[in-house]
Amino acid sequence: MSEAPAGLDQTRWTALWTRLGAAGAGTGTFDLLAAAYHEPGRAYHTAAHINDCLRELDHHRELAARPDEVEAAIWFHDAVYVPGASDNEARSAKLAIAELTSAGASSDLAHRVGELILATQHFEVPSAPDAQLLCDIDLAILGRDLPAFDAYQRQIQQEHAWVPASLYRKGRAKVLQDFLSRSSIYQTPAFKARDEAMARRNLTRALTSLSG
């Protein structure tokens, strides 16, 4: 069995791969993902984030119409991550489609997974329930307690250490303000009830810090 340098669960991956109708154990794709999430320069977008998202899915799996496709999207959604690039999700979606279809999964399934990954750009609120669930899972960190949220903020800044401080603060503030300006940060009732209030407190505090 291949090593998982970034702490990904290969047994879980293989079971998912089989349920998706892909051939073999998916070892090559697993190794590709494990290496991607272990790339130098990543501080937040690592296997720890993927595992956190998978735990969130386990708690809310009953909300998904196609839970295996949501899970596949979680595994792939940050596979390509270049800080500051605008096409990370598009490239991650393309990778997922290529890996799944080349292993014999249906084209329709692969493209649905790709569409889910594109939703994690968070440019707009998705209308499809599975995309809403995936986005809520991806944004769960915003509603965590103060130490966890502050650690997340430091990790994102670390990934953008090459950006001049003034530009980083301006860009980061815009990202956070865009979420805060939504009528609701989370779209599923479960995440709204659990995380909405704390996320708004975290974002408001972070924006105050960034403006200072």
Strand tally:
0
Q: Enumerate the spans where pLDDT stays under 50 for 5 or more consecutive residues.
A: 1-6
CA-CA gap between termini: 50 Å
- State the secondary-structure class: mainly alpha
Number of discrete domains: 2
Structure commentary:
With 212 residues, the protein is mainly alpha-helical. It is 64% helix and 0% strand. It is built from ten helices and no strands. The radius of gyration is 17 Å and the shape is globular. The relative contact order is 0.11.
Give the key terms.
212 residues, mainly alpha, 2 domains, globular, disordered N terminus
Please render the helix and strand layout as text.
Elements (H helix, E strand, L loop, with lengths): L9 H10 L7 H10 L10 H14 L6 H10 L11 H15 L4 H13 L9 H10 L7 H14 L5 H16 L8 H23 L1
Helix pairs in contact: 3-4, 4-6, 4-7, 5-6, 6-7, 9-10
